[in-house]
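Re: your question about GntR family transcriptional regulator

S., sorry for the slow reply, the queue was backed up all week. Below is exactly what I fed in.
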Amino acid sequence: MPPTDATPLKLYEKLADEIEEAVRRGVFTPGEKIASVRQASQQHGVSIKTVLHAYALLEGRGILETRPQSGYFVRAKPQAGAARREPKRVIATASEVDVSRLVLSTLRSIRAHDAVPFGSPYPDPEPFPWRRINQYANAIARRHSSWNLIDDLPPGNPELIRQIARRYAENGVPVDPDEIVITVGATEAINLSLQAVAKPGDTVAVESPTYYAMLHAIERLGMRAIEVPTHPAEGIDIDALAQIIGRRKIAACMVMPNFQNPLGFQMPDERKRKLVDLLSTHEIPVIENDVYHELYYGDVRPSSLKNFDTKGLVLHCASFSKSLTASYRIGWAMPGRYRAQVEKLKFLNTLATPSVPQVAVADYLRQDGYDRHLRRVRRLYRQQSRIMGAMVERFFPAGTRTSAPQGGYVLWVELPARVDSMRLYRAALASGITVGPGYMFSTRNAFSHFIRLNYSYPWTAQSEAALRRLGELAGKEAKMGERA
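Result:
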């Protein structure tokens, strides 16, 4: 909703208005360089993130422009009537909806209340061989009393890179090991990739609903998200995306073609090829989050967008956090033509990824039964997916519909339109149950009557009772909506 006189401006909006007013009064003249992000942060006593959002807003209004390796400048020819113009609200941006705060609140609730973790984004760690990997790490630490920092520098441990490249090659995806950059989880890979292809104020196309880590990255970097309708079985609407590309400049596209969180679909190969072809035609890079690629329920590992990339425009991101161990936060990027830039950004952002976790994971991949572990986890998730789907159908109010996950460990639940997922979230928490409210997966409140459920944890009498209780609460919410 556009801001009114009664709606307080956010801090970055106030800063943007102050700078815009200074430009209007001639304090800053056309073509003049303004304070750097760090300088403005110190001058105004605000965070760097706030300054980035303010500068991005001013770029959108036509007041500022960025020049590579030079900084921010007042536009030489400001758009007429730009003064005091409110930012356009047609396309929702991640900064307009505090998705990050909602996600953090959900995670804290799980920890603080010892709640049933249906709302958790993380898999149950118990089936994972983290104890075995810890043994490797301890042995490595005993052999090496100290590490040379040079050993930690990007692109990462050579043996780990070799093992990752081998897994892709064994599954029909030949990759150049020199393209791989090790990161602190897939989240860093996504953030580095986005930094490499877009700048503050740029527009990035995302699926709708989309995994909130995508929205976090866009929000943090002061960019704008435009949401593209997404089919629950076939993925992003390619025709709708083509229409958007025809109307406005899109700096990048971010998708999860395999076992998308929250919908759980596996995008068909022909649609993956069609998506890559569309974006290649327009020279638009695509960031592929493939963090669930090992958790497929079928007989064959799915293809990735990387299989169909001929121009190096696919920046492929993945990790071991969802399939092997989350505690070590080992991820990677295969950024195509942007590889040098991603490696540089990795060095500038976090300097390096610690060596011991990298070597421990590499040792496990080389010596232990990773494939045997994955087969066991896939069977477990497939079974628990069916159980939870059947229980939701049994216990939830009439009109409830669920997704049909083909991999991963989350179920997307559409409740009757009268149910508000935030009210249900609070009521469930009071009963010791967490859910992922649909508000987390969009900047437009488009999924206010949806929730996401995690089925990776063991199915027990307690979890069945919790799901039954959740269904009762959803039923009460639906009846309240009818009376309203």
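Confidence is low (pLDDT under 50) at residues 1-7, 78-97. The longest strand covers residues 224-231.

Happy to talk it through on Thursday.
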